[in-house]
Amino acid sequence: MTKRTARNGKIDLLKFLFSLCVILNHAKYVVPSELEKYFLGFSLSVEFFFLVSGWLLMASIEKAEKNSSLSLSKETGIFMLRKYKSLYPDVAVAYFFGIIIVCVFTSAEFFPLFEKSWFDIFLIISTGLRGTGIISVTWYVSSMLICMAVLYPFIRKYKDMALNIVLPVGTLLILGFMYRNYSSVRGPLNWNGFTYYGNLRAMAELSMGCLCYCLSKKLKTVDFSSAGKTLLAIVEFAGYGMFVFYMASDFDGLKDFFYIFILCISVIISFSGKSLGHKLFNNSTFTFLGKFSFPLYLVHGIIALQFSNIVPSAENMRTRDRLLIYLTISFASAVAVMLISKLIRKAGPIIISGIKKLTVKPTDTEEAV
To answer: Taking a C-beta distance cutoff of 8 angstroms, is the pair 29, 304 a contact?
Structure first.
């Protein structure tokens, strides 16, 4: 029997599936150039992750309202530090894995490469400090952290005004600006003279995720009949289906905005837990897939970019074989990153404590103990 967990299994499964969509997007570097167009649309998968991150941000804010007695600045700092620490082991391992891949399969040398790419490992590339990307997909994490650092204290202090006025109006204004100027939300590392497109995208969609939290919370209070739960499930999966079908069949940036709102509806229902069969997804298998999606997201990009160097005979292979090898190497690399990151999380506190004992004098209280 599969063990149930406290996490939202449906969201975990969707994280994994949308990570696969991102991998397919970057398969454009693996397949022959005439087939690239079939994978471009999957870049819109990141919208799901921004919405989920916004939902979780709002959940953290409501939790802090009940439990925190710290000043707003300290509370925000602790929140950001926890978020950073939860992500960093995977990012660091994926980064050094990427550098090793580049050094082994090209003529690049470690230190010159590190000099040009260290921005990646500290998750600051979305500030504009960006050099030679090793794991450029971290633009998403970088933009997310930057926008969370602004949204968390603002919503925490001005919650009612933020949720009822600033976030909905601000979201529409940002999306409207991108619609009129860029005709899409894509191209995250395009620079507009002030900031990257990805930061605007993150701010708008994290805000939407916060609003999704409020709407899913209201939906949770409704006691639906079996017919109502069935209807919710139909709307929920139809929304995801429409979104994925659009990514797989079209690349019209102006339509992106319509399908983002469709995605919001499905995310609200998924987080409400009210649709028919929701509890069936809450199991350890989907929890694992949800956790696995992050190292998979991080590491696949370098495999895609270096694929021709890793597999020199790829030019003579059929497209199907290229994709199969690309997916196999990406999954195997993600497993390695996940396992090493897990070891670091366990050993890290012990190592840090040992270094502290060697380098820092104990206080009088510590000596007394």
So the answer is: yes
Cα gap 354→351, rounded to integer Å: 5
Q: How far apart are CA 56 and CA 19, in angstroms?
A: 18
Structure tokens at 231: 């209807």
Per-residue CA distances from 89 to 63, 92, 115, 335 (Å)? 25, 5, 20, 14
CA distance 216 to 11: 13
The residues, any chain, with a CB within 8 Å of residue 132's CB and separated by 6 or more, are 113, 116, 117
Name the one residue in this structure whose structure tokens are 């007394």.
Answer: 368
What span, in angstroms and rounded, lies between the C-alpha atoms of 294 and 337?
10
pTM listed for this prediction:
0.93
With a CB cutoff of 8 Å and minimum separation 6, the contacts of 267 are: 48, 51, 52, 55, 209, 212, 216
Two structure tokens written together for 16: 């994994």
Strand partners, 191: 196
Largest CA distance in the chain: 72
Q: What is the SS3 assignment for 364?
A: helix
Binned average pLDDT, 10 residues per bin, the chain of 369 residues: 68 97 94 86 95 97 87 94 94 95 92 91 90 88 96 96 97 95 90 93 98 97 95 97 92 87 97 93 95 96 94 90 96 97 89 81 61
Rounded Cα gap, residues 50 and 216, in angstroms = 16
Q: Report d(CA 359, CA 129) in Å as an integer.
A: 32
Q: DSSP readout, 32-87? A: -GGGGGGTGGGGGGHHHHHHHHHHHHHHHHHHHHHH--S-HHHHHHHHHHHHHHHH
Residue 368: predicted pLDDT? 53
DSSP annotation of 191: B
At residue 278, the 3 state secondary structure works out as: helix
